[in-house]
């Protein structure tokens, strides 16, 4: 008599799943966690390398833009605190010519030169930026250029001066 639950023959092949459980005799391949850790380390190294290889003119331009934003806000704060009409004017775009704050007391010594002599600046739509004494000064923009790079420092009149992200040129994706 034959029973359906009783094995009739010995299995020819026994399936084995490779494992990396501690204490197993054989270890084949890597676990998913180990692979993910290696991928994360490679991604971090690639990111740091990309940051280290940045265009130095872009970094200098960002530094100038941050410095200009801080200087314009300092001039704006002094104009409001002292109740004086203050303007920010550019010199010519020749080397050695920088900028100046017109209307501030002479004892206030704000910088008057760019950090990089090759920097070119242009105030959009005006000859000077008006910094005060009014709390609302109107929207104003200044474009900084260094080589092929450019950045815009602007305010809407109420918010502080800040660096705007450059918009792609027309026709580029």
Q: Can you offer a commentary on this structure?
A:
This protein is α+β, with helices and mostly antiparallel strands. It has a domain at 56-164: 3-Layer(bab) Sandwich (minor pseudopilin epsh fold). It is 28% helix and 20% strand. It has helices at residues 32-52, 56-82, and strands spanning 86-90, 99-102, 120-123, 128-132, 140-146, 149-155, 162-164. The strands form two sheets. Strands 3-5-6-7 form a four-stranded antiparallel sheet, with helices on one face.
What's the SSE pattern?
HHEEEEEEE
Q: Enumerate how many helices there are, as a single number.
A: 2
Q: Can you say what the CATH homologous superfamily of the domain at 56-164 is?
A: minor pseudopilin epsh domain
- What percentage of residues falls in helices of 4 or more residues? 25-40%
What's the main sheet like? 4 strands, antiparallel
Number of strands: 7
Radius of gyration: 32 Å
What structural class do helix, strand and pairing data support? Answer: alpha+beta
- At the fold tier of CATH, the topology name of the domain at 56-164 is minor pseudopilin epsh fold
List the strand order in the largest sheet: 3-5-6-7
| CATH architectural designation of the domain at 56-164 | 3-Layer(bab) Sandwich
């Amino acid at each position: 008599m034959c029973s359906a639950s009783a094995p009739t023959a010995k299995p020819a092949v026994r399936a084995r799943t490779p494992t990396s459980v501690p204490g197993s005799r054989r270890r084949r391949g890597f676990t998913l966690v180990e692979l993910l850790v290696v991928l994360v380390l490679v991604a971090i190294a690639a990111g740091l390398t990309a940051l280290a290889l940045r265009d130095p003119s872009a970094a200098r331009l960002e530094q100038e833009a941050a410095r200009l934003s801080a200087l314009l806000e300092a001039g704006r704060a002094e104009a409001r605190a002292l109740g004086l009409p203050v303007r920010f004017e550019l010199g010519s775009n020749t080397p050695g010519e920088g900028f100046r704050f017109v209307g501030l007391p002479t004892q206030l010594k704000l910088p008057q030169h760019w950090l990089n002599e090759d920097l070119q600046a242009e105030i959009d739509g005006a000859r000077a930026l008006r910094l005060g004494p009014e709390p609302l000064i109107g929207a104003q923009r200044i474009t900084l250029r260094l080589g092929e790079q450019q950045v815009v420092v602007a305010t809407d009149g109420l918010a502080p001066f800040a660096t705007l992200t450059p918009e792609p040129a027309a026709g580029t994706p």
